[in-house]
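Reposting from the mailing list since nobody answered there.

I have sequence plus structure tokens for a pair of proteins and want to know whether others read the tokens the same way I do. The first protein:
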Amino acid sequence: MAASFSLWTLEGLEQERFPLSVSVVGSGRVTTRPSGLDCPENCVAEYASGIRVSLTARPDPLWEFESWGGACAGQGNPCLLIMDADHLVTATFVPAGLLLTGPTPGLAGAVNTLEVLGATPGATIYFVSAFTEGSKAVPGCPGVTVAMQDPKIRGTDVADESGHASLSGLVPGKASGRTVLLQAVEHASCTVSNVVEHTFP
């Protein structure tokens, strides 16, 4: 009888556990303390009932943390949760200004695409390129420069409501082996993007 009583006592003391699930929008990661979750690689972890979990949003370079969603709310970082139920959390990251990516697929003799995030909706985005590093003033924008010599405008696009703009075009095969500097400019706000340096294979 003593053994049976001891078994039931231990079962009664077993602590309930709850899952914490995190999703990431944009480019960044979320870590927890106590450890157990490091999203986007590991986005689900279980914690014992009553445990206080601190979630910290960590933006990637050229990105910034915007807000939490789900069980966490607002912009406070870190977010503190008490594990008293199943929790779903979303962390949203947005570009810190103009973010230029590409060219995709990055090959000579193929149509390549440049993309910009973080632009002002409705603004015209100028895509410029050059082959030599340097500094060139942006006309009408005192103190604003692009990081290249003799830049050429390769095309424009109007940013959509999400702040996205793109430019596609054929890169000739003779560009193989050459390194190009790429940048985007939003003239209306006198904002320039990061510089992309790409060598076409």
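The second protein, same order (residues first, tokens after):
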Amino acid sequence: MCENRGVANGASPDSSVVHELAASLRAALIVIVIAVAASGCSRSSHGAPEKDAGFGVDVTIGERLDAPPVSFRADVVPILEARCAFASCHGDRTAAHGVFLGRGAPQDAHDGLVGVVSARYRGQVLVKPFDSGGSFVMRKIDGTLAGLSCGDACGAPMPKKNPPLAARERLVVARWIAQGAKDD
């Protein structure tokens, strides 16, 4: 790459060689920076890890919860309806285990979650606006129940007998709670 052009018997290299060398080094540095940045880009467009995390993992660690904005009706309700609102789980008012998340009733689902103390696990607020880590629902879907006042009696992570929500879905719910758990 760098030849001895312009250098004779210990003389200093001419400025064209120095400029050529500097340009080559800049190009190499740019390639290295791009490669390093690309190797750390294993995140989806939502900021959640590409690989889904299982139960027991707080997906909010290292994530911004204030952005992007999350809408309860547009973003959270479809997740609840697809993953929680089954007749045998939280989709039937009589079999909802105290928490109804049924289809076609977003206002009822919101009102039954936000600021409501669990009927089954006293002292646990289902959704605490602006506090995803302190919201029992978030702890249930993450499976991070250790250390709660209900102890081993907190029940199973949700959804019960099904795979955990995808990290992207869990992050949407966490963002909604952290952004105030509004019904919008």
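Reply #1 (J.P.):
I read it the same way you do. Residues 12-41 form one domain.
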